[in-house]
C-alpha cells in the first residue's frame, strides 16, 4: 500500500469510539414535570417479571432501533410507549453526556419536559409503577457513595510468557463509585443515579 492510499483513508474521517460498532446502544429520558408548585423528576419501577433488572428504578428508555431517526428519537419514543403519553407531550428535549459502560453498552441520556401529563397509562409489561421526586429535595440531598473494585482474572490458558513480568505483571486495577439516593422508601442507584447526579450538577453549575 502506498502513502497516498493511506492518507486518502484518513482524510475527512470522523473519529468515534474504538470498537463502538460492537456496543449495544440505548437512550433514556430524564422526564421533568411541574407538580405541586415545584419541578419534579419522574422515575419508573420496572415490571417485576422482566428478565433484566426486574423491580429496579429507572428512567424511561430502551435500545436504539434501526428505524429510529437518532438517539433523541429513541428516548422520546420509548418514553411515550412506556408511560402511555402522546409524543407531542414530550418537549424541550436536550442531551446530557453519554456513557460508555464497561459492560459493552453506550447510553445516551436526555432531559425533557412532559406537558399536560394527565392520567398516564404505563405499559404494564414494562412498568410496574411510576413516581416523582421534587428537584428541591434532590438538589439538597447528597447520595450515599460506595466503591466497587474490579478484579483482574486472566483466563486459564492466558499466555503470560508473552508479556513482560509474566504472572507477576502489574495489572492496572480499577474501581467504580455507586451512588444511592433514598426517597420515601425507594432507592435510586446504578446508571439511573449516575445520570441523575450528572443532571443535578449541570443545572447547579454556577
From TrEMBL:
The keyword DNA damage does not apply. Its cofactor is Mn(2+); Mg(2+). Keywords: Hydrolase, Magnesium, Manganese, Metal-binding. Residues 23-156 form the Nudix hydrolase domain. Coiled coil: none annotated. CDD domains: NUDIX_CoAse_Nudt7. It comes from the Bacteria. Pfam families: NUDIX. The keyword tRNA processing does not apply. GO terms for molecular function: coenzyme A diphosphatase activity; metal ion binding. PANTHER family: MITOCHONDRIAL COENZYME A DIPHOSPHATASE NUDT8, NUDIX HYDROLASE. This is NUDIX family hydrolase. It comes from Bacillus methanolicus (strain MGA3 / ATCC 53907).
Amino acid at each position: 500500500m502506498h502513502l497516498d492510499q493511506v492518507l486518502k483513508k484518513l482524510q475527512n474521517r470522523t473519529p468515534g469510539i474504538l470498537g463502538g460498532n460492537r456496543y449495544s446502544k440505548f437512550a433514556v429520558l430524564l422526564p421533568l414535570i411541574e407538580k405541586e408548585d415545584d419541578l419534579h423528576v419522574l422515575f419508573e419501577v420496572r415490571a417485576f417479571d422482566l428478565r433484566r433488572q426486574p423491580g429496579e428504578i429507572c428512567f424511561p428508555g430502551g435500545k436504539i432501533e434501526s428505524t429510529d431517526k437518532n438517539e433523541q428519537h429513541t428516548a422520546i419514543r420509548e418514553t411515550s410507549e412506556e408511560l402511555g403519553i402522546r409524543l407531542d407531550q414530550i418537549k424541550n428535549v436536550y442531551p446530557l453526556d453519554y456513557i460508555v459502560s464497561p459492560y459493552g453498552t453506550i447510553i445516551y441520556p436526555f432531559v425533557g419536559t412532559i406537558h399536560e401529563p394527565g392520567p398516564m397509562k404505563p405499559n404494564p409489561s414494562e412498568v410496574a409503577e411510576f413516581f416523582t421526586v421534587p428537584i428541591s429535595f434532590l438538589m439538597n440531598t447528597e447520595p450515599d457513595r460506595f466503591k466497587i473494585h474490579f478484579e483482574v482474572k486472566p483466563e486459564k490458558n492466558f499466555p503470560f510468557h508473552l508479556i513482560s513480568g509474566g504472572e507477576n505483571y502489574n495489572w492496572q486495577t480499577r474501581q467504580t463509585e455507586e451512588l444511592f439516593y433514598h426517597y420515601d422508601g425507594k432507592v435510586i442507584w446504578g446508571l439511573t443515579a449516575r445520570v441523575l447526579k450528572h443532571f443535578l450538577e449541570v443545572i447547579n453549575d454556577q
